[in-house]
Sequence to fold (114 residues):
Amino acid sequence: MVIPPPPRPPTITKFLKPYVLRMHFTNKYVSAQVIHKPTATVAMSASSQEKALRGSMESTRDVAAAAKIGKILAERLLLNNIAAVTIHLKREQKYHGKVKAVVDSVRQTGVKLL
Fold:
């Protein structure tokens, strides 16, 4: 007689920190996206490559552009009822300059950072 394995408890990863903010900076553009970890899909994104945003920016790569991208991303998150995100920094990214501009503008717009 084979004894079935005990039932597993439900995974709690979807309740902990499901949304992660990732930023990418090139020599020309700034982009930020929020990824839903359990499904590995992009929940929301904003980039200085978007045609609607390019016309309203002086430069698409400086700290001011990064702050504007953070603000737009946060507004889109709040419209979709995503109130809290976690920040994921790459190894070479430090909390300084463009990264700080994006994170601070997201925080000031009303999204909670975990």
Summary: The chain has a mean pLDDT of 88. The beta strands are 19-25, 30-36, 41-47, 84-88, 112-113. The helical segments are 13-16, 51-54, 63-79, 98-109.
